[in-house]
Amino acid sequence: MKFIYIVNEYIKVAFKCLKYVYSINKKGTVFRLGVLILFPVLSNVINIINARLANSMQQSYGTGVMKYILPIFGFLIVFTFLESFFSFLSNKLSISMQRKLNDQVFTDQLSKKKDFTIPFIDSSDYEELRQRIEINGEGRYAQVAVTNSIPEFLSIVVNLIFTIYITYSYDWKFATLILLASLPGFYISFTRSFVMRKNWENHLDDNKYYSIYSGMFMNYQSLKDAKSSNNTNMFIKKYRDWKDGFTNSQIKIQNKYSNLVFLSGMLMTFIIFTIQFFVIKDVVAGAMLIGSATLVIVQVSRLESYISRLSWFLPEQYENVVTSKYLFLQAETIENTDKITGSEFYTENDTIEFKNINFKYEDTKFTSLHKLNDEIDNIAVKYFGLKKQDQIIKEKDGSNFNLYIDNLVINKGEKIAIVGKNGNGKTTFIQLLLNIYQPTSGEILLFGNNLKNLSQETILNNFSALYQDYSQQSLKTHEYIALSEKGEIDMDKIKSSSKIATADEFIEKWDNQYTQQLGVYMKGVKPSKGQWQKLALARTFYKDSPVIILDEPTASIDATSSKKIFENLKDIDKSKTLIIISHNMTDIAKFVDRIIIFDKGRIVGDGTHKELLKSSPVYKDLYESESR
């Protein structure tokens, strides 16, 4: 049953992979597949012609039959040349197709990932999907691996059919004997592959720890932390312990099954020698011609070889088959994806409105993934004796957090500060505004447009946002700053944005200034954490959007620069709306028009600095705590 199940699954997924690859390169796929299927047929036909040619020469002893043999021999040469020529073309095409397929497959996967919502990417379900795809290291190319394996599978099947037919045509008893004798070796090799996989699965957590401990030495920050805590020797020891445990278990399995493989191989060798003995005996007795004898001896050896290849081919491909299922799920799912179409955007007014908003965090639901996980895991338990993979623990529990906003209007050009203690709804408010999360009830209007009716791209075009966890890309300085905007890079705009963020102070000291390469990975400069934040700020100001959102924009910046940045924000384009989250109460109080206070998921204050000091105990406590 196990064998039948795997063959069935392989054929179904292989056909789907073939359709996918065909959609990428129609002519190349058909030609390569046709050539590779033709190889085993040509090879076997040539062997049969060779055998008959040898028989004819033996029977004729060089008489008049030569006039037939020479054309046949010439045909054979042409046939062999064509086989070699097609092999050359196929290999050449295979190399170019492999690169194109890998590039296209990876590009398709990136295109799909960009459509996933941020909450989903941040969820345990997405991490589950990622780990299932990457379980065998090169999982993202599993579809290509399955497609490339189809010719080999067909070659094995075609060759098996030919060899069984030729062997049976000589003596059905010998053919049956060699098939039966190959079963132990087939079973042992087949089982060994899955026992190795079971052992790998059982050490999956160990291998993750191995990656964690080895990763301690792979980047600057981790190595610095390890050295600072004087724990490098401990990490090396743990790395060796985890690695040695897994390696030793694999060696133990290899040793156990290598003995069984040796015994089954000895049995098969004995049977092959026995068949060869009787074939040679028939030749000596004149009951069999040399050509036929050579053909039978070659095919008997091939039969054992093809059965052996099939025994490890299917288990080897099963992992790619499973991973391909997850890749197709990723490509075909419409769950947890950003809305890509929506109503036409129009500007009815200049305000942003929150009306009767109620929001509660809910776990993302990826029912298709859970269904596939159950299918794969149940098969793993039933057929392969593997344990079910543990589900990733839900990392976010917002069941106790609710955000309520009865009514809030933000006018064009206002500079607004969002303040409050951690975990009280400030960042959630921003995420709702950017449509990263959608309210449980109520509506958010952007210049008169309900966010529910707009595409995510349209929404984000109206915002330029700096998050706390901004990225640090090893690009050239002007390229990094211009990442936020499409089109040609405007160097004047790069410089003015850098000046607002005070990034110009260090950029202009670099050798290449605004074209300076960033990041040691590209042999560029290594900005400090504060400098990276200033560069990210400059990137935010570079984007030409009507609303700017800054989440803790000066968290890593020194006090002097922080004051300068807040001073510069006073002079920002008056038509732009600025929303800033900050714990720097002293500086923001000097330049914002309004301050909105969040406490326990509700707005508990909305007004100017002076008004709130008089009317809001929460604000007064926050301000005085920061001022002390």
Protein model, in words:
The chain is of the alpha/beta class and 628 residues long. The protein is built from 22 helices and ten strands. The chain has helices spanning 2-24, 26-60, 66-115, 118-121, 124-133, 142-170, 172-202, 204-215, 220-228, 232-284, 290-332, 367-384, 426-433, 456-461, 477-481, 491-500, 504-507, 529-542, 559-569, 585-588, 609-615, 617-627; strands at 352-360, 402-410, 415-419, 441-446, 449-450, 463-466, 547-551, 577-581, 594-599, 602-607. Strands 6-7-8-3-9-10 form a six-stranded mixed β-sheet, with helices on both faces. A four-stranded antiparallel β-sheet has the order 2-1-4-5, covered by helices on one side.
How much is the average pLDDT? 79
CATH class term of the largest domain: Mainly Alpha
pLDDT < 50 stretches: none
For the record, the CATH architecture of the largest domain stands as Up-down Bundle
CATH homologous superfamily descriptor of the largest domain = ABC transporter type 1, transmembrane domain
Fill in the CATH topology of the largest domain.
ABC transporter transmembrane region fold
The radius of gyration computed from the alpha-carbon positions, rounded to a whole number of angstroms, is 35 Å
Percentage of residues assigned to helices: 55-70%
Q: What share of the residues does DSSP label as strand, in percent?
A: 5-15%
Structurally, how many domains make up the residues? 3
Cα end-to-end separation: 74 Å
What sort of overall outline do the alpha carbons produce when their principal axes are compared?
Answer: elongated
Structural class: alpha/beta
